[in-house]
């Protein structure tokens, strides 16, 4: 699986974004359990999602090329 066909790229994109969503949910839950305010929880979740998604996409591009 080299990830260069359009169908494989879509599958990898879905995997990366679902993993990012999972990490964001865990980060949000941890911040909520720690007693953080709602804007802080949303910010932490968003930052975790963006960080993991961008890292995953960059890693996939690096490996695929």
Kindly describe this structure.
It is a single chain. This protein has 65 residues and is mostly helical. Helices cover 85% and strands 0% of the residues. It contains 2 helices and no strands. It has helices at residues 6-33, 38-64. α1 runs antiparallel to α2. The two termini are 12 Å apart. The mean pLDDT is 91.
Short description:
With 65 residues, this protein is mostly helical. Helix content is 85%, strand content 0%. The model has no long low-confidence stretch (mean pLDDT 91).
SSE topology:
Layout lengths: L5 H28 L4 H27 L1
Helix pairs in contact: 1-2
DSSP strand tally: 0
Radius of gyration: 14 Å
Q: Assembly type of the shown chains?
A: single chain
Q: Main β-sheet, in a few words?
A: none
Share in β-strands = under 5%
Helices and strands, in N-to-C order?
HH
Tell me, briefly, the overall form: elongated
* Total helical segments: 2
Task: Decide which structural class fits the backbone.
Answer: mainly alpha
Task: Tell me the helix content.
Answer: over 70%
What gap, in angstroms, lies between the N and C termini? 12 Å
Mean pLDDT: 91
Low-confidence stretches: none
